[in-house]
Structures are given as structure tokens and as C-alpha cells.
Amino acid sequence: MTAQKPTVSLGGVPLGGVGPIAWKFQTGVQPYVATYHVHNSVWEARLKHRMGGKLDLVVTDSRGVKTTVRDLYILHTIPGDGPKRTWFVVADRRWRWPYKLIARDYNVTKRSGNRTIDKDTVPVEARVTVDEYTYKPYSLNGNNRWKPEDAVKDILELMEGKDASGSGVAKYNIDSFPLESFGGATGEDGQFTLQNVILRDQSDIALNRLLSYIPGASVYVDSEGVVQIFDGTDLDAVDSYYAALPPNTWDGNKAEFIDRAKIRPKKVRVHYQREVEMVLEYEDDYVGSTSANPVHTDPFVENVCATTDPETTITEFDPEVGAEGASVDKTVPPGTYVNFKSWLTAMDDVKPTGSLKWNFDTIQTFWIEGDLEGRLTGTNLRGKEDGPDTSNVISSISSLRKHFRQTFRINRRFMERIRDIKAQRVALLDPITGARGPAAVWGEYTIIPTKKGKMVASRANPDKAGTYYMATSLPQGEQSVTKKDPGPHALTIVDADQGIFRIDAMASPYGDIDSIVPSHVVDIQNNVTVPSRNLTDQDDKPMGCGMRLVHGVNECLLAPTTEYKFMVTIVPGAPNNKNQFHVEEVEADSIKDLFRHEFRIQDGVGPELDVFISPAEATARFAWQKDDLARKTIGELLGLNSDDPNDAGITEQELDGFLCVNQQVELYGHSRSVAAEMLAAYADNVQGSVSTIVPPGWAQPDSGGMKLKGNMSGSTLQVAAAPSAKVSVTHEFPGQQKPISRLALMPESVRHLVLGIVPFGKE
Q1: Pairwise CA distance, residues 382 & 388, whole Å
Q2: How much of the chain exceeds pLDDT 90, in percent?
Q3: Rounded to the nearest 5 degrees, what angle is found at the Cα of 494, between the Cα atoms of 489 and 500?
Q4: Ramachandran quadrant class, 749 (left: phi over 0; alpha: psi -120 to 50; beta: rest)
Q5: How far from the centroid of its chain's Cα atoms is residue 224's Cα?
Q6: DSSP character for 535?
Q7: Whole-angstrom distance, CA of residue 162 vs CA of residue 141
Q8: Most exposed residue of 107, 274, 526, 702, measured as fewest CB within 10 angstroms of its CB?
Q9: Distance between CA 195 and CA 145 in Å, rounded?
Q10: CA 511 to chain centre
Q11: Closest CA to 10 of 83, 60, 65
């Protein structure tokens, strides 16, 4: 066979051969751009008038093998290297994409108008209401939700339309997507679920955005001018492509199969921040004159009050002083939270002349009666205009009413080992918004009803003569808090660093409650009782506040003791190492089925790979189950029995007394997808570049021309400069696997939890 001279033409016009001529097939939404030249006369006569129109680049090698690259465009001329040649820029069809605006909305959510409440777990006053969501009809694909694949097709139709030849076929083709659909409610596994995707972008940007919802998908323009969407993670296709290539044409360019087994992790350890429910307990007793300091390692809570004076000198217990904690003296500025009893003692030392003692007896007697302000201001201040003295006292009384048995501080030894505290439970109420159940409060309280409330109570029980109603939500005996509905209180965090929170009693929405007293009520003899409406009981029961009898009982007073239990969620901060996290271990062999093709991530003998997941994405949430075991576990988790916080932490993944509420429904699938994402970077694959003659399939009319496969970065068709004019193709294998986001790898149900996807139809 006689060799013939290689030729290159564009639109049937031979191109100059002073330098090499190349055309590269590359991935991405940006066009490949090349510069060519012809003699000035040829430009003027045969190409100038064809600028902006479709042209074919035809390369014929020495064997007579012809390779055609269709649908190229001359964009403009550029400065050349001499007066006799015209240089110009040529691009593939992607150069047109930025000119077209894409306006599309896909699966836009809206509030449906329906709402749900957690009516089964909390009283009506504390119920959390959440909105239900649906999709705006105009943003749906008919009666169905848009899938990423369908949205990509939609965008390509808008970008390319139909073939100008009139064939009615759009100039694009979807070869395959990276991951299998595993079934599921919508069959969207292997793709992100589209939600609230609003496109007001140029078409190249719009297509790139949508392809990001199908991790691993790539786009290029092939030799026929067809836009190809293909699986950029298909290593099997790369192997087949590489094996079928003609021999290398010269040394210096070569490719190797890279075996990463020695560095590939044998397992992945996925670390999640723990969120753990904790029960806190509060008890006070104002009957005794003295009280012992609390045990510094107990989960105690103390009633605190914000100071108001310019300076306040107090003595209070600090659990972080010494081995067992100790009482310390300190002078603090206004706005400092201090122990309530200690504050009362300090305020009594500086009370105004004529004031009753600042102690519990005064609070007990006049809290409900309503004259607390008058009794504590002192005779020398009554009737005076507001000034520094009166203002300080009134501010202090206001602080007393605001904080007494309502504002609390967690044991400071606890807080030194806690990263954060949250006024919520760990269970999800609404996976769409991420709303959780509110922190729970169990306690003793007294309801003062409105006139309506009294009438309603009488209708329900004519024998019920009490004008107040004493209630308790506390567990009884050995009953666990998990078996008792909480009371109608809202808990809010005042200062997360100090562990200060307050509770606010919530009145019924039905108008039958006037106010709620933060304790039970007793008579003068400390017998639990409520005012009676029956005058025949006047010698035995109080008739109302401030009504004193000569004989028998009188008054309606605050109970000298009260009790509360609180359930909040904490994030452990100790120890200052990995032991504060929950860990899911994933073996490489357990996740190979996540990929549609063999991903070569098994049989690794490298070190274990540790990965931390941002709490914004997922956490390990532990619900309180068994009181005694859970209390012990909290102590171990925070290292309360040691002065060294680094002695804290539990290496076991199950916490005694707790239940990880999202281990099966979320963490199992999430951790496997994270491991798959990490291990994909260590997959065995081909790396390097190979230069060959034009592969036989490229020139066959029925072969579809040139194709890119798997993680190939591109192929370059090149004609060397004269006189050799050698025609070759350089095939590029980057050796790095295209990343696949874990959000696409995880099961659809888990992805919906992580991303807050609105269910559709019967999902």
C-alpha cells in the first residue's frame, strides 16, 4: 500500500500546515477553541463569508483514513504572524450556549395551608405547630416531580432545539448516568432530588448546575457535533477503551494501570457529633434555716437571679473550686446571674428602712396577695418620686418576680464539659424544616383560673369548690420521665455558655387561665390547700389571699418546697479528642454495591481513614430512655468524677440508658455513602496519556465517531507540521476518579432527611 500525503480541510478548504493543527474533544460546558490559518486570498474567497455557519473539519492520514469533526464554527479573525496569512478562531457548538437565557423552575415548594402538631406527647399549651409543604404545580413535570435526568433533557431541548436538518432529533444524547436507581419511592437514587431549583441563567451555567445534581455525569461534544451526557465514573468503559487502542506511536507518552491497594483505606470511620438528652433536677426547701452544699458531681440545677445594684457582694457555692467545690465571696456588677438564696441574703443586708426582710417568708406571704412591691420598698421610699434609691429597689423586686423558681443555672462543673445546650429534644417533629420537639419540663404549679375557668370547672364537677387548681406533671415514685407527659412550660436558653435557662408557664389557649404560680400553695400551717368558694369551709380553708381569720387557718401562701425536672439536649465538649464523637465503621466490601460498575475500592491494606461530619449535615442523636443508667452514662460521658476533662468520653458507640434515634434511619445509610465518596479517590484506574494512530472506529460511518469514556479528560486529534504532517490521537487518562457526592450515594430516604426534601404524592 502506497502512503499518501495527509490532508486537513475546514469546510472543504485546505488549512495551512506551517504549524501543527489540532482539535481536542474535552469535557465540560465550555467550548473547545482552536486557531487555524489560510492564505489571505483563500480566506477572502472561500471562508470569510462562511463565518458563523457550520463547517466540517476533515483529517485524512497517510493510510487514507478520513476523520470528520462536524458542526464547527469560525468565530472571528485574530492577529497573525505575517501579512500573507489570515488566522481565525474555530469553536464547537458550545460557543452558542452563553447567548441563550434559561428560565425554569423545578419542584418549588410552598406551604400547603395545612399544619400538624405533636399532640401525642405534650400538653396543649406546649404543642409545637409545623407547616406542611407541597409543590407549586407550575414547577412540576406534569403530574410528577422533576427528576434531574428529565430536567437535564429539558434544558438540552431548550438549548439545542431540534436538528436544523429537519430530522426532528435534538442534537444531544444521554449515554448513561453514574449510579443505579435502587427503586425507592421516586427512583431517584444515584441523583440528587431536585427541590427549589430556580434557573435564571445562561444555558451553559444552567446545564452545569443541573449536572451537579447527578454527581459523576459529564458532558462533551463528539465528532458528530452531538452533545453527549455520559458516566464519568465508568472505569470498566475506560479499561475497554484503553485495551482497544492501537499501539503507541512513540515513546514518551504512556499510560499505566495504577494499583492503589497499599494506600487505599481498609475501612472508613465516620465521626458524628453527639447530641444527648439530659435530665436536670431542681429541688428547694425554704423550711430549714440551713442547707448543705450540693454534691458537685450531681446534675443539680440552682435557681438564679440577675443582679440589679451597681455592686452586689454575695457568697455562693462554686463546684469548680477545690476537689469538692466550696463557697466563695465575690462582688459582681449588675446583670450578673447569682444563686437566688445568696442574692436574697445580700439584698436583705442593704434593704431600705421599713422594708420587710428580704427572705422566703416575705415572698411566700405576699407573692399571690400582690403587695410584694409595697412590702419590700420600705416606708421611707413610699410616696417619693422615682430616684436612684427607688429605682434600684423596684428593679430588684422586678428581678425577684421574674426569676424566682423560673430561672436556673446548670451545675457549672457540668457546663465546663459541655460544648452547647439546646432547648429541644432529639427526635424530629418535621424532617422538612428540621423542627424538633421542645425541651420538656415536669414540675409543680398552681393555676389561677379566670371567671370562665371557674365556671367550666364547676360545670364539670359541681362539688369542686376550690378557686385554684394545683397541678403536677412530676413522675410519681419510680416512674421514668419518659413515661410521664411534661407540663405546660416553655424552656428557653438564656446563656448557653453558663448553662442558664428559664421556664415560662403557658396559659391555655382557651381563655380559662388567668395566671400560673410557680409552685403549689399552702395554708399558714403548711398544709397543701387552695382557696375555697364554700363559706362553710371558712374555719378550715382559706377564702382568698390576704383574708385572715382569728381562729383556724388563714392566708394562701407559696409552698416552701417545690420540685422540677428538665430535659434538654447537650453537645459534649469533653474530652478534647475524638472520644467525644459517635463513630460508624464502614468496611470497603460492604459498599461496593452502591456503584453501577466495579469501582475497585476493595482489598485495600492502607490505614483506616477518619472522617468528621459537620453537625449542620448530620449528628448522632441519643434519646433518654432509662433514668438510672442514663444518669450514670452522662457522668461518664462528661468525666464528672475526674478533675481532668480528658478523662471523659465513652468509646463504645451505644450509650447505656439511651437510644440512638437516627442510627438505622439515617446514620447507617449516611456513613456508607460518606465512605464510598472517600474511597472513590483511591480507586485503581488508568493514568497517563497514549498517542496512537486514528482508532479504526473513529472513521467508520456507523460507529458514531469519536467517544470519550469514564474519567477520560479528553482526546486530541493532531496533525504535525509540514513536512511530516503526521496524524495522531492523544488519549488522556488523568488517573483521578471523578468525585461522586455522598448525597447521591445515600439511600433516598436518608437523603430526604439530610436535605429536608418535601415528600411528593404518596411518599
Answers
A1: 14
A2: 27
A3: 90
A4: alpha
A5: 44
A6: G
A7: 21
A8: 702
A9: 9
A10: 39
A11: 60
| Candidate from 393-407, 611-625, 690-704, 745-759 with smallest mean pLDDT | 745-759
| Best CA proximity match to 159, nearest among 193, 204, 196 | 204
410 within 8 A of 297, measured Cβ to Cβ: no
Can you tell me the distance from the alpha carbon of 453 to that of 433, in angstroms, rounded to the nearest whole number?
Answer: 36
| C-alpha distance from residue 530 to each of 181, 447, 466, 521, 669 (Å) | 66, 10, 6, 7, 56
Q: Which three cell numbers stand for residue 27?
A: 469535557
Nearest-angstrom CA–CA distance, 469 and 688: 82
For residue 350, what is its C-alpha cell?
442593704
In sequence order, the 6+-apart residues with CB closer than 8 A to the CB of 159 are 97, 100, 102, 203, 207
Predicted confidence at residue 251, as pLDDT, reads 52
pTM: 0.79
Q: What's the rounded Cα separation, in Å, for the pair 446 and 466?
A: 12
Q: Is 240 helix (H, G, I), strand (E, B) or coil?
A: helix
Helices (H), 14-123: 40-42
Whole-angstrom distance, CA of residue 511 vs CA of residue 454: 11
Residue by residue, DSSP assigns 101-148 as EEEEEES-EEEEEEEEE-TTTS-GGGPPEEEEEEE-GGGSBTTBPPPH
Residue 762 pLDDT grade (very low, low, confident, very high; cuts 50, 70, 90): very low
Per residue in 547-569, pLDDT (tens digit) is 555 445 567 788 999 999 999 99
Asked if 179 and 594 touch (Cβ cutoff 8 Å), the reply is yes
Stated as kind and residue range, the H or E segment containing 340 is helix 340-349
Report helix, strand or coil for 739: coil
Instruction: With CA atoms as reference, report the closest residue to 559 among 605, 528, 601.
Output: 528
Mention every residue, 6+ apart, whose C-beta is less than 8 A from residue 577.
646, 649
State residue 187's pLDDT score: 44
Cell of 111: 406551604
- Could you give the CA distance from residue 660 to residue 666 in angstroms, rounded to a whole number? 10
- What are the residue boundaries of the structural domains of the chain, listed by start? 7-91+691-734, 267-273+573-682, 310-397, 413-567
Q: What is the pLDDT of residues 573-631, one digit of tens each?
A: 988 888 899 999 998 877 776 666 666 777 888 899 999 999 988 999 999 999 999 99
| Cell numbers representing residue 571 in the block | 453537645
